[in-house]
Amino acid sequence: MQVYKFGGASVKDAEGVRNVARIVEQSKDQPLLIVVSAMGKTTNLLEKLTKAYFNQEPEAVSYFEEAKRFHEEILNQLFEDTSHPIFDQVANLFVEIDWIIEEEPQDTYDYLFDQIVSIGELVSSRIIEAYLGISGLPSQWIDARNYIHTDNNFREANVNWEKTAESIHASIPALLGKSILVTQGFIGSTSENFTTTLGREGSDYTAAIFASCLNADLVTIWKDVPGVLNADPKWFDATELIPELSYLDAIELTYYGATVIHPKTIKPLQNKGITLAVRSFVDLNQHGTIIKKTNTTLPVSSFIFKVNQVLISILPKDFSFIVEDNFSHIFNVFAKHKLKINMMHNSAVSFSVSVDYDEKNIVSLIKELKQQYDVEFKRDLELVTIRHYNAQTIARVLINKEVIMQLQDNYTCQMLIQPVK
Ligand code: ASP
Ligand code: MG
Asked: Does the keyword Magnesium apply (predicted)?
């Protein structure tokens, strides 16, 4: 069987949904499970809605209207028959947000985020499944929350693999092949049946979870880029497609922040030896990138950029050495405030890290660290990682930049940089 994953960009409008149906039409003779993200920028919009509602700002209502309008327009373009049940199904999903926001918030932000933002995936999967139906493709909508079981770490939930595999084995194999199964990426549920999310851009991970539990032959992530490139075209003009990539290089690239695939996606596939294809939903003649067990090394230097970085330097108040005890305490504080360390460096009397700027979490982190250490920080930095670097590639990214912190080993060079003033 195969698993296809369609991200938000592939279903950003009615034409995108029609294109999904065309792609699925070509593969309809094999057992297929489709994992979809929210349409276009819906997740960002629902995130803004959640923030505004949580802070009791009036914009919450206009964001909500915008989300409904956006989906209504797509529905109107796809379904001529206005009595099709999809119109009610979508309206009913949005009513769930209505119920939440008409009362004052009582729950934590992370919990509310998951209950509200997950509606994006529920709506898009309903629309896509219904559209496959009217296109003559036998399909069935599946609620991922009945299969992806997680803990209650809202917004970044951890998957209970045993329970998840059990649920998937119990019913999905019998459905596969009879119709095309359509489910949501990114979402799961707790043992009390509360909706959770797996972390931003987590739909790839969902595809890998289903693929792993079903021993899929192939997972395909359909993207708006031709495959895995050696740099994000957002930052570089001349990018190159990497036709074949080892699991190890793929893990390393995503670990350092290549956004083409969610970092948690590779491990479950590697464990089962499942090949992952990353290819264009625009140009179906291109094969894109194949990620599999191979000894091929990365053919070109690859660049990963992360903007909006903060350097946080932690120094013991009494000039004592940074020792193991301090490290475990410091790592725990970062985990508690949900900040992921992108780069770290330690010396005898200081420990420095670079993290993504997230105002709320950083303020609370620094407050806690300051009880025990002196803390300094510096904003508006960029982190560049070059895998298979050389002198030219380093020089290329340092044009008009100065280096704040640099680390390198045989394969990888990481530099925290800022524009020269
Ligand atoms: N819709 C979610 C997000 O944008 C999940 C995903 O796209 O993978 O983060
Ligand atoms: Mg997305």
From this structure: no
Q: Which ligand is nearest to the CA of 5?
A: 1
Mutate to test the pocket of ligand 1, among 201, 204, 222, 264 (most ligand atoms within 8 A of CB): 201
What DSSP line would sit under 321-385, residue for residue? Answer: ---HHHHHHHHHHHHHTT--EEEEEE-SS-EEEEEE--HHHHHHHHHHHHTTEEEEEEEEEEEEE
More reliable by pLDDT, 101 or 298: 101
| 315-361 pLDDT per residue, tens | 988 878 777 788 899 999 999 998 999 999 998 889 999 999 998 89
d(CA 291, CA 254): 13
- Evaluate whether residue 151 is within a structural domain: yes
**Cβ–Cβ contacts within 10 Å for residue 56, how many?**
10
- How many Cα atoms within 13 Å fall on the side-chain side of residue 126? 21
List, for residues 171-201, the tens digit of each pLDDT value.
999 999 999 999 999 999 999 999 999 999 9
> Is 10's pLDDT higher than 90?
yes
| CB 40 near ligand 1, within 6 Å | no
- How many distinct structural domains can be found in the chain? 2
What pTM was estimated for this model as a whole? 0.90
Q: Ligand 1 mean position to 268 CA, how many Å?
A: 19
Q: From 37, 122, 260, 262, give the residue whose CB has the most ligand 1 atoms within 8 Å, as the site to mutate.
A: 37
CA distance linking residue 149 with residue 187, whole number of Å: 9
Domain that holds residue 394: 302-419
How many angstroms is it from 38 CA to the middle of ligand 1? Answer: 6
Judge whether 358 lies within some domain: yes
- Residue 360: both structure tokens together: 């709320």
**Residue 255 counted as domain residue:** no
Biggest distance spanned by C-alpha atoms of the chain? 73
Per-residue pLDDT reduced to its tens digit, 356-382: 999 889 999 999 999 999 999 999 999
DSSP assignment of 40-79: TTHHHHHHHHHHHHHTT-THHHHHHHHHHHHHHHHHHHH-
